[in-house]
Design goal:
The protein has 262 residues and is α/β, with parallel strands linked by helices. The chain contains four helices and eight strands, in the order αβββββαβαββα. Helices cover 32% and strands 21% of the residues. β3 and β4 form a beta hairpin.
Amino acid sequence: MLRGRWIGMLLLCLVVAGVFAWLGQWQLGRAIDSNPPPPDITENVKPIDQVVRPGQYLDAPLVGQRTEVRGSWVRGDFLLVASRFNDGAEGYWVTGQLRIAGTAEPTSIAIAVGWAPDEAAAKAAAQRLEKTADGSVVSITGRLISEEGADSPPQDQPRRMDRMSPAALLGFWHDTDELDVYRPYLAAQKPLGGLDAISSPAPVQQSPINWLNIFYAVEWAVFAGFAFYLWYRLAKDAWEREVEEFEERHGIDGPSAATDPS
């Protein structure tokens, strides 16, 4: 076991184990958030331009952030989204395109205005909201929520939407030439048009410990230990073969002496 090749392999194992140990330490450092966001940080109302930019995805810690936007409703763009649950009851959302005020380029965000228990009530609310789309600037406060992704509507109902997707809504909106659109949508805190308020509680605070990363760190430690075990097993097997060959050459019977012939 003191042969040069085994010493060289031991040094190689030390290097490999050192790399594994560094990777384990790196994973462990990522497993614990040393600077977690303060509790209830999402409850502080912020202007939307301090939270996310048009076209950007909403970072996970900012999902549910209470945000304020100012703009004007675009006429003809109050649309319905089906399969919306409010405290366990299924119904409809009425959504609208809000053109943000004071931006250099035309920019819009999808607003979930409120909830209705059935399609008839939702359509009636949308008609009432259309009358308010007179170009006046309004202020809307609500929670920013990541888009759900577009879904193909039934062939017999090409305008039906079951997911809250600004990308899908954009296909029905008016006046969209060179329009910048926010990827997340805003669930309004106060409903309009006689609708019910959308149930949108504060997001649950995430644990600062990422257990998956801790598991990976333990895995790297196991790999480092296995590198040493592999070296020991290979060296021991080689030594035992040399002992057997030595005994055969010299006609020695019985158990081998517990000494290294090298």
